[in-house]
Batch of 4 targets.
Target 1
Amino acid sequence: MGETERPRADDGLRVTVGSKARRYLIPLLIGAATVAGFVIVARRMAGGAVSEATSPDWLLLAGAFGVAAAVQPLRAFAWSQTLQRPVGFRAVYAASAVGSFLDTVLPGRLGEASKVAVLRVASGPRWPGVARAGGSLLAAHLMEALAFCLVGATAGIFLPFPTWARAAVVGALTLAASGIAAAGIIHRHFNRWLPRWADKFLAAAAVPRPTLLRTIAILTATWAVRWIGVLLTLNAVGVHASLGAALLYMVLTGLANTAPLLPGNAGVYQGAAVAALAMVGEAGSKAVAASLVAPVLASVATAAAALLGIALFGRRFAELPRAALSRARA
């Protein structure tokens, strides 16, 4: 009989090293993305297409970074409203921030699935279950889309939106409102024929009217904060944009972001940004500068927010990125 192969002494060490590498991958990736983002912004501002633009105003750019970072707590606060469970804001913030960061480095919004996985680890014994976490996240996204469409529809009254943009805003508004209404109708009238997990999912997505109105108000304020960030970013790179131009830019690039084909929606965002600025008389190197700097700055701010969310858990910080990474790969 053949001799049984004995485990080598270094096998355990290899497993430990491999698990540690995976555990620290997301924090290292976030830190690298934050540093690389600042480097890219500096290089873009110094050379290439942006070299022909006005010298950047770093004070305005720093203000835009702060505004972009402030968006994450607002989005987390909106999700905490739809959860309707005392999960703890720290856990919701960490899950929302880490998932949003992964959305910027993965195609197809794969980071959204990781939000539920991170929340499961971060909430601990307060974990509300997959169905409630997923349903509440869907409700938050539908209401974020609804708030965006309300902002876009209001802006369309005063700004020269192209016909396709008006049609897209109306269509998205209809879909978001229909999704929220459908969740409530199916849960109330067809719950007896649904699997238990599906009924719980729809019950979480069908939030009560007071919660719905409160969440939409929070998310509308979130878009207002983003509007300020866009205004600061455009003026920082030499585009002397008014409030109306910044709003037009935000709405058109927001519509483009509904098709996340590549990480950070690269390419599609730049096309929408240049087109939006051309409509307000800004073209050439300054428009290209804005289209390059704005998404990079947003990614850096998201990475910083994710790093903060992980750091809030102290010694347990390694568990969150491990959960996010496993879900993102699934």
Target 2
Amino acid sequence: MDSGIITPVTGGSLLGQGVFGCTFDPAPRCAGGPVFSRVSGLRAVGKVTYEDVTDELGIGKAIMALPLATAYFALPSKECKTETPIRDPDITDCKVVEEMPMGATFRTLIMPAAGEQLYKYGMDLRRLGENYLRIFIHLLEGACIYQDAGYVHNDIHMGNILVDERGVARYIDFGLAFRVEDVKVWADANLGSKFRPEYNWQAPEVHAWRLMTGGIRLADGVKQLQEKNPEYLQLERQFPSRKQCLDAIRGFMLSSKAVAREDGGAFIRAYGKRFDSWRIGLCMWFLWDDLLRSPSFMSTALYAKRDLVRSVISGLTEFDPRARLSVAAALLRLDPGNRLGSSSSSSSI
């Protein structure tokens, strides 16, 4: 009988890494040698980090307690002090090792292995074309679920979305998430205050707030955004009927000057959910752009829906959050009558 216990294999594969840790399959061993049972019926992978994991684990458990959570999220359910020296798997390729502060302890967050990262999945254009619309709708449904519970993911990019062999997409890494009702000041949202134009997954109004509060001219900041992220100029060219970035953000910030300059908390409470609309739209736009360059794509059923998909991407990537689609409104455009979109508290445009 299968006990569900997975024995770690020496030299686990490094699946991915970022600022806060590295993810390995199989998961590293706990100090003392315990191994891990399957998570949600799937084999376990482990995120190794020296950061405090309390908030991430707490938010992960809260998100996984939401209705239908296992279909939309793959988040840590437990953690342990990692066996040191770490032999299982070999962690020497993880950049976190080089940045580890003196005296810090590695910890491992355990989560289900729910597929491959979206950017890797998208390299197979045939498979992507077959599942693109399903993935898009599924991501919007998942966002409706966590937003209705009051959360903003705050860190959506193609490395934080996993897609399994059935084409089911799941969000991971809510370590930077915040609850809108808990935001009193800007710092409560884990957005940082320094202008970082290279962070293209952060919504334009987040950059604009930092510029305004930092005393940087908006025109200069938008120029830097365009230089660091050619996506801004590409979006302007692909959607010429929309306001261009500088005009859209200038109009928005002038209309919201009091909120933006004097009360970052009110700014986030008003527009925070639209931060995730931008991120989802950007991910799906990158993939859509790849599909359009594939000669075989023109003969697919998805190509016949290109105008609809394009309009939804445009709505999600509006530079002005007041004109940007909510996740529920985008979902209802792609899938009219969708139960999650129709019942969402975020369905207004």
Target 3
Amino acid sequence: MILLDAKSFEDRCDTLLESRGISGHTAADRFCSDFKAYMFYFHYKGIGDANHTMCLLENDDNLTDSNILNTNFRCSLNALISGPLRCDPLFMAIFPILMDNNGKGIGAAELALPLIFSDYRFANKSDGVFGEDNKVEIKKNGASLKPVKSGITHKGLVDTLNKKYFNGTQPGMRDKKKFAAHIAQVKDSSVYADYFAELYVGCDTTELAAHAQVCYDDPEAFNTAVGEFALAQYQSVDDWNNIIYIDHKKLEIVNIADTSDVSKLGLKFTPKFVRKGDTQAIADGYVNVRI
């Protein structure tokens, strides 16, 4: 086993992590400490050679090309790791640990992804940045999409609109009895045009309303139409290049760059058309997404 010069190796780690934007934040500092500690630990445990792992990480040619984030895909997380890194036992031992490293304001994976993508870095202004200034949004499985910026509408607006248009019932319910109760209140499906226009203030809901008129009595199709609208609108609201959903239990990842073509990604949309005791800070009419 080759002995590591602690000071020079730690300096190399600091230089690498700083170049990936992983610095200047409490959670990032902890990530850096964990990265160095586990590099030393696995090296001296005989899992691999930390010098070899660092050489791989310091050269973008050994990483997955970040241009892949400009395309839609669904795959296992390990499939995104480049061949050279997958063949490195120390990296494959440390990566799952780093994936779970998170803290206040930083979700799991946000700090680990810069280690596997070329020209990709963590940034305080977003969950990640690649290329010149492509903003990345990272979400855990089940997290919400916001079609409207917070503060534009008041909480409880959706409940008011449900009373106004549907006698208090809610659209898109997955419970069959509640869905049937809602459909019974829809005398003319063109009502969704007014409903969505009032709920999603400032958004062009013309296409969404047209879809709803056709599929309002099919809960899956209706929820998908609302979800795809929310996805496109959220991109406009937050101005990201791509959004990543990660299922940590299944180690699956979904990347969306083109919001107009997500039908093959297996997304399950659950619109929330009721506020009541909901404490979510985002505007009414948000949509939860599972992969």
Target 4
Amino acid sequence: MIPGFKTGPLSWEEGKSLVLNEKAQMCEIWFRVDKSEEYNEYFKWLAKHQITIGLHHWAVCKGGIKNNLSTHNKEVRNETIAQIKESINISSEYGCVYVNIHPGALFLEKVTLSPWASVLMKNTKPTEETEANKLTLEAAIELDAYAKKKGTMLFVETIPSSECIVGGDRNNVYQPQNTSLEVMKDLAREGITIANDLAHTAAFIENNTTPSKKDLWQTLINFTEATHAATKLLHVNTLQPPYNGTDSHDGITDENFAAGVLPNEEQMKEILGIFKERDDIYLVPEPKQNMKENHLALKKMVAEL
């Protein structure tokens, strides 16, 4: 297992400190492909320090429409594919090991990335579920082949079932019918590499149900066990209530575990234990704050395993 950290334009200095002072050796970059030139100097700095890099692709289609590989809207889907291919090109150019992407949804959404805000598009017809699943698989296969041709890897990440309209307001949400965990299992069976965001996976609920903490844990561990062979990235995150399909982006420090997050500390060790013999899986925490503390907690947990 390869523990790393998350960094991006708002946290370059923190990332540099983790490399210089904590000897971190791997990072995932929050990467806006439309602003790719802003990352060039940091890519060079990381290369100078021999840091393994992964990219987490972010982009917005024309008209402020959220990237979507699952939609029957050809313009949005084709633009999404083209933008992901551009991230793959940049990944190849700078020697990054992977590009991590979110798949899609039945509904189209309007989104701004910074500050985050999103909403369902009105008066648009959702994609029929069977067609969306087919389109998702076709796009993933195309992009996976393109990444391999360019000498990098494509990862498709689990996503929660609900989205916050503004920032982290988890009481103001909507359901765009995001790519389900069952479809993610289908992708894994077809040879697509999976990024299992633990909080996203735990947060995925069906049909606006109100699951118990035990139910969410069972969903998480079952999915992780079913897809472990196809998984090469874990976003090592935890979840706090409300359990309404959204992610809280909590961490893995003692303080987080004391607050009763899901998975708890023992459950997190159980999940990581599934991968403890693997030297090809990247572990990246994505807390709202305290990246240093979370990176160190992750390294400690891995060492104990």
